[in-house]
Amino acid sequence: MYEITRDRAFQLLKKLSEAIGPSGFEDSIREIVVDELRPYADSMWVDSLGNVIAVKKGSRGSGRLMLAGHMDEIGLIVSHIDQRGFLRFQPIGGVSERVLLGQRVIIKTREGRVVRGVIGSKPPHIMKPEELKQVPEIKDMYIDVGTSSREEVEKIGISIGSIAVFERDLSFIGSSDIVTGKALDDRVGLAATVEAFKAVDGNEVDVYAVATVQEEVGLKGARVAAYSITPDVALALDVTIASDVAGVPEQEWITQLGRGPAIKVVDGRAATGLIAHPTVRDKLVEIARQYNIPHQVEVAPGGTTDASIIALNKEGVPAATVSIPSRYIHSPVEIIHLSDLVNAAKLTALFSSKISSEWALSISKRVIK
Ligand code: CO
Ligand code: ZN
């Protein structure tokens, strides 16, 4: 039986977090995930959008559980190259101007070559005082790759449509349990999905682990994967807001770092994201209590996950989420606590292994007569 450990989880997270994979360009992440899941899957495929789907057959041959962790990260896409070799770009997903300035980025060319650049803008010394107070817009920023002409840029393989992400390694900060890096949204949820799938044992239901594409640009991969699988119950594994930081009052923390995975009640503005299926949510809490897995309950005021689109598949799917608390989401300095990753993976593995086919089928449809 596969054992989920902090060390294995960290190694996998490091590999996933440092790889380049903005929405629609998840190739590098997909390769890692395929290699990781292959030895543990009874069957496995990649669909036309690029979702990786791995199946572990259940002992009862009925009931399907879908686990979803998204592979994509937010990023940039080159939209224009000027005569002097400066690159203009558009965002992929929710990229904030506030975190772009002063960053190093890595650009990946169509041929797979990797080029380093920096995000530049007008120097502060020549700005007017009122300009200095404002965050420049994306249209006023550019990527500087150190070239001096468009021809030179093209020679190194960068073209319109080349993609870029923050350049950042995954590393420990002050504590031996806390790591920081880019794309922890959602490589941490993806790592938890992969580790949970490996550890699933004695399952009655068929367990489908799905590494989804294009979550950050509209939950697209999860939508088609759910259609293909027709799950009876589903869990998404993603980050959630941990705003337990200086200057934020306790009632706005949402979740706390290191207090265990969060089991969601609702998300999205005014609960317009997911309203977690109460029976699935209660089952997660029950299993967490039974196996002494630390956990917290969250009501998130914004953002959502793959679960909200899977819930709307065909005639509806009872769905919930297991979230990993993360500070500074969508920045190059996202922070998570490794124990939250390990516990999220353990909770998901136990849920997948312990639910009965009968339970899964009974919540997805209640026949009246
Ligand atoms: Co996100
Ligand atoms: Zn996410």
Describe the structure.
- The protein has 369 residues and is α+β, with helices and mostly antiparallel strands.
- It has 2 domains: 6-73 and 182-364, 3-Layer(aba) Sandwich (Aminopeptidase), CATH 3.40.630; 75-166, Elongation Factor Tu (Ef-tu), domain 3.
- The protein is built from 11 helices and 17 strands.
- The strands form 3 sheets. Strands 1-2-12-3-13-16-14-15 form an 8-stranded mixed beta sheet, with helices on both faces.
- A hairpin with a 5-residue loop joins strand 1 (43-46) and strand 2 (52-56).
- The radius of gyration is 21 Å and the shape is globular.
- The model has no long low-confidence stretch (mean pLDDT 97).
- It binds cobalt (II) ion and zinc ion.
- Residues 70, 185-186, 215, 238-239 line the site of zinc ion.
Given the C-alpha coordinates, what overall shape results?
globular
Helix content range of the residues, please? Answer: 25-40%
- The Rg value, from CA coordinates, equals 21 Å
The small molecules bound here are: cobalt (II) ion, zinc ion
CATH top level label of the largest domain: Alpha Beta
Strand coverage percent = 15-25%
Structural class: alpha+beta
> CATH H-level name of the largest domain... which superfamily?
Zn peptidases
CATH architecture of the largest domain: 3-Layer(aba) Sandwich
| Total beta-strand segments | 17
- Whole-number total of structural domains: 2
Number of discrete helical segments: 11
Distance between the first and last residues' Cα: 43 Å
CATH topology of the largest domain: Aminopeptidase
* Uncertain residue segments: none
For the sheet with most strands, the description reads: 8 strands, mixed
